[in-house]
Amino acid sequence: MAATRVNSARISHLSALAFHGLTTQNPREVWVTIPRTVRKPETDALPLRVVRCQTDMLDEGLEWHEIEAAKVPVYSVARTLVDRFRQRNKLGIDVAIEALREAWRGKRFQLKELNRLATRFRMARVTKPYLESLLALTRSIPWFARAAGRTGSFILHGRGLDPTISARVVIQRASIVVAAVDPDLPAVLQKDGV
């Protein structure tokens, strides 16, 4: 209820990810975004992590949700993902990638909206390789199933930004499981020794 106690605060970043169910982390503090011109709130009851934003960008991607009979401003899934990529150097990119994967699997955002917000917040070049890899993998899975013609496990090796992440495609009797995604797909299809 930090947003109701602090005027002009919006629930954002890790708290918004937790609200939308897109992270395994439980934030120790409530993340809120406030305008740059507003003084940092002083609250003893709640540990707050305050992020400042320009006033004209404050309402981009804002949604109102009813929580315990109170209207609370929470950023949308698309805005929250863009915010996570904006804070990638302070908080690590792994949380942003995890949230992007979960949101993509659950069809929780519109790609057009995410691209619009990423462009508005100057994050389009950062998010582009991750979005392209998700799109390439999604469009390539039926091809892999037809090309394999049998059950098996394949690994797509890429030369992306994070070489420790690859896409593992497991084909078992017309069901396909994707374990992870590489930022630079499609690259090389190799038969795995499983």
What can be said about the biggest beta sheet? 4 strands, antiparallel
Give the domain tally. Answer: 2
The strand count comes to 9
Counting helices, strands and paired strands, the structural category is alpha+beta
Rg over CA atoms? 19 Å
Which sequence of strands runs across the widest sheet?
8-7-6-9
Topology:
Elements: H1 2-5, E1 10-11, H2 13-20, E2 30-35, E3 48-53, E4 62-67, E5 70-75, H3 77-86, H4 88-91, H5 93-105, H6 111-120, H7 124-148, E6 152-157, E7 167-172, E8 175-178, E9 188-191
Parallel strand pairs: 2-3
Antiparallel strand pairs: 1-2, 4-5, 6-7, 6-9, 7-8
Task: Explain the overall architecture.
The chain is α+β, with helices and mostly antiparallel strands. It has two domains: 121 residues, no CATH class; 56 residues, no CATH class. Helices cover 38% and strands 24% of the residues. The strands form three sheets. It has a four-stranded antiparallel sheet with strand order 8-7-6-9, with helices on one face. The chain has a three-stranded mixed sheet with strand order 1-2-3. Strand 4 and strand 5 form a beta hairpin. Helix 2 runs antiparallel to helix 3, helix 3 packs antiparallel against helix 5 and helix 3 crosses helix 6.
